[in-house]
C-alpha cells in the first residue's frame, strides 16, 4: 500500500535542511485541535520557514500506526534532523517541545 | 475427574456465564470451561513463569482447535522473535499469520525516544488494536505485557484512565482477552492491573525448592464462576502447556472385582483369589538387590502377554538397561515393546520437581492409556522432595489411577534407616497390597524371603517364601522352618537332603529295633517259662513238707496217747489197742 509521506522523495528535504515533522492526531478531538494549534505557534516562533509539517489523522491511516509504531496520540515525530524524536501530548509544554525538537 | 464434573454440574445450575475454551491441556477443566467469554482475563506472575507462552498458546489453540482468529499485541518481543520462540512447540506462527488467522503486532515502547509535552491518550493503540481485530475477525486478543506502557510514559493518571477505557473497549469488541502482567512486590502486578481486570485473574508461579523448579498455576479469582482453588502444577514441554487438576481427594472411586495376575504363579497362590484386584495399587519393597525390578518386570510381562498395555516409569535405569537385565531372568520385554504393548518412560528424578513428575506421568498415562503401570522405584523421588511431598504426590497419583482403573505397581527401596522405614509406612496406608522382600543372611549367604505384608479385600498367606530368581523366571519356594530356624538357599537344600537321608536311616533303624524287640520277647518268654517250672517245683516241695508235717503230727499224737495209756496202767500192746474206742 502506498503510504503518504513515506516515499523516498521525502528524504530530499533533508538536503534543504528543513525540519521534517509529522503530527499524528486522532480525529478532530479537542486534544487534536489543541496540539495542532500549540505546535503551529511554537514552530512559527522558532522555526519559521525551516520546517515541513504533515498532519495525519490516524483514523484515516490505520496501517501507518503499525509502521510508525504509534500508540499514544497526539504524537509528533521529528524525522529530521537526527536523532529521531517522538513527542507525545498536546504540545502545551513549550519547553519540552523545544527540547524534543533540539531547539533549546 | 469426578470432582470437576460435579462442580461443573453445579456451575451450570448456578450460572450461564459463557466461556471461551483455552485449548490448554487441563486448564479448561479447572476453570470449568475456559476463560470468561468476551471479557479480559489477567495472567500474572514473575519473570519466566510462562505468561507469554500461556497467552500465545491461547491464541494458537484458538485458531487450530476452535477456529477463532486471534490478535497478539506484543510489548516485549518482536513478532519474528515470538515465532522463533514457539517453533519448538510446533506452532507455526508465520504460516498462521499468512493465513490471516493470527495477527501479531509489536509495540515498541522506548522512554529515551519519547518526550511528553502535555495531555495525550492512547487512541493510537485503540485504533491499531481495533484495526487488527477487524482485519481478521479476531475473537481472541492478547496484550503482552501492557504494563510496559508505564515504563515508556510517565503520566500514570492518563495511563490508568486509558487502561480502564481499553478494557471497556475490549469488552465492547466482544473479544476474549488475556492481559499479562509482571508480578509486583506486594501486588499481583506491578501497576495493579488487577484493579481493572476483575473478572478472572490467574497467577503463575515458578518456584525453586531444593534446586528443583516447579511451575504452578492458581486461579485467584473468577467472577461468576466456580473454579478449582488449589495450586495446580503445570508443565511446559514440546507440546506446550499442560495443567492437571490433580488434587481430587474424594474417596468415591469405582472398584473392580476382577483379578489381575502377577506373572509369578507361586506368588498368585499366596492370595486367596489368585492375584491382585484390578485397579489396585501394589507396593513391592525390599533392600537393594532383592529383585524388586524383576517382580515389576514380570508383572508387566504378564500384562503384555495378556495383550494389555503397560507403561513402565523407570527412575533408576534406562529402558534398554531394563530390557537387557530382564532377559537374563527369562523375560523378553523387547517383543512387547516392538508390539507397542509396552512403553518405557525413563527420567532421572532430578529432571524436575515432584509435581512436574506427576504432571508428566499423567500426560504419559493419558496419552498411552495403559492397563498396568509400574513406578520403579518411588523411593528415588525422595531426592527431589520431602517425604510428605512424595506421599501427597502418590496419593494423587493413586487417586487418578484408581479412577481410570489402572493397576499400579510401585517398587520401593528400603534401607536400614529409620527415615526410609517411615516412607514405607506412609505409602503403605495408601496401597492395597504390599509385598515385602527381606534379605535372609545365614550360613555365609544371602537369600531372599518374600512375604505378603498386607492385601486388602482377600485372604493371603502369612508364610515367608523363599524368592528365587533363575534364568527361567521367578519362583517362590516354601522355606524350611525347623528347630534351627528359617533356612533358605543352600542351607535349605542341605536340610532337605539331610532329611531324605534321615528317612532312610530311620526306617532302617526301625527294622532293627523291631527284630530286637522280638528277640527280647522270646528271651523273656523263655524266662517266664523257666520261672513257672521253678515255681511248680517250689510249690511241690512246699506241699511235700506240709504232708510230712501232717503225718509227723499224727504219729506224734498217736504215740503220745499210747504213752498216756501206758503210764496210766492200762497198758496194752500197742498193736492191740483200738484207737476207735477212745
UniProtKB/TrEMBL annotation, chain A:
Residues 22-103 form the KaiB domain. SUPFAM superfamilies: Thioredoxin-like. InterPro entries: KaiB-like (IPR039022), KaiB_domain (IPR011649), Thioredoxin-like_sf (IPR036249). One of its GO terms (biological process) is rhythmic process. This is Circadian clock protein KaiB. It comes from Pedobacter polaris.
UniProtKB/TrEMBL annotation, chain B:
InterPro entries: AAA+_ATPase, Circadian_clock_KaiC-rel, KaiC, KaiC-like_dom, KaiC_C, KaiC_dom, KaiC_N, P-loop_NTPase. Pfam families: ATPase. Residues 514-548 form a coiled coil. GO terms for molecular function: ATP binding; hydrolase activity; protein serine/threonine kinase activity. Residues 18-257, 258-490 form the KaiC domain. Its EC number is 2.7.11.1. Keywords: Coiled coil, Hydrolase, Kinase, Phosphoprotein, Repeat, Transferase. Gene3D superfamilies: P-loop containing nucleotide triphosphate hydrolases. Residues 562-582 are annotated as: Disordered. Residues 562-575 have a biased composition (Polar residues). The keyword Kinase applies. PANTHER family: CIRCADIAN CLOCK OSCILLATOR PROTEIN KAIC 1, PTHR42926. This is non-specific serine/threonine protein kinase. It comes from Pedobacter polaris. The lineage of its organism: Bacteria, Pseudomonadati, Bacteroidota, Sphingobacteriia, Sphingobacteriales.
